[in-house]
Amino acid sequence: MRVRPCWHTSRLFGYLALIGKIGCGFGCTCILELLWESFSRNK
Q1: Which residues span the membrane (predicted)?
Q2: Taking CA 13 as the corner, what is the angle to CA 10 and CA 16, rounded to the nearest 5 degrees?
């Protein structure tokens, strides 16, 4: 599994990522990105 920066998100979820960083720190943003990536892959 490759490591990616927490802030590397698609433009569509850029705003959600920003809220995640402010609301609960970088951890939530990383989790959201991982979930979105796995979801897109399973499509």
Answers
A1: 12-36
A2: 145
Please report which helix (H) or strand (E) contains residue 25, including its range: none
Q: Which of 22, 18, 23 is nearest to 33 (CA)?
A: 18
Do residues 29 and 20 touch, judged by C-beta distance below 8 A? yes
Is the pLDDT assigned to residue 37 strictly greater than 80?
yes
Both tokens of 30, joined, read 């990383």
User: Average pLDDT of the chain?
Assistant: 69
Phi and psi for 14 in degrees, rounded to 5?
Answer: -60, -45
